[in-house]
Design brief:
Shape: globular
Order of helices and strands: HEEHEEEE
Strand content: 35-45%
Radius of gyration: 20 Å
Number of domains: 1
Strand order of the largest sheet: 1-2-6-5
Structural class: alpha+beta
Number of strands: 6
Distance between the termini: 45 Å
Length: 150
């Protein structure tokens, strides 16, 4: 009997966490649809503060969804780390064109260099979805609970 009651308490608690998380994610999606804002946001929810990283990537740029998801996580982690601890970032855009008899092929490669003394852990993918106006772009929303000094 004791085991069954402890299982039902645990199940009820986990359902409320998932319900709260789902409501939070839906709030973030609605807010994105209204503002179309990308970058870092701080969101306070009662006794918790979250740092949210919102970014979009074109799925045409990446050969597979695995690579696109990995790039999104690296960029989100970089944004959050830069906000929390500061970083130095530089990027170069290389454009290479090759000409054949009847066409010109243009290839773009972005090289991002980051120098940081921080290491951000536990950045979680909260949700991803296609943009309504550009179906070839995917919006990623990552988040991390942080402690704010008051």
């Amino acid at each position: 009997m004791i085991i069954l009651s402890s299982l039902s308490i645990t199940k009820g608690h986990s359902q409320s966490i998932n319900t709260e998380k789902t409501a939070f994610i839906n709030f973030l999606k609605r807010q994105y649809e209204q503002e179309k804002y990308e970058g870092i946001k701080l969101i306070e929810d009662y006794d918790k503060t979250y740092i949210i990283s919102i970014l979009s990537l074109s799925n045409k740029t990446y050969p597979s969804s695995n690579i696109m998801f990995r790039v999104a996580k690296v960029k989100a982690t970089q944004q959050i780390g830069a906000y929390i601890d500061g970083t130095q970032i530089s990027s170069d855009l290389l454009i290479r064109s090759t000409e054949s008899e009847d066409s010109i092929k243009v290839e773009k490669v972005e090289i991002i260099r980051e120098h940081s003394n921080s290491f951000t852990q536990n950045v979680e993918l909260l949700t991803h979805f296609s943009k309504k106006d550009r179906t070839d772009e995917v919006v990623f929303i990552y988040g991390k609970e942080i402690e704010v000094k008051r």
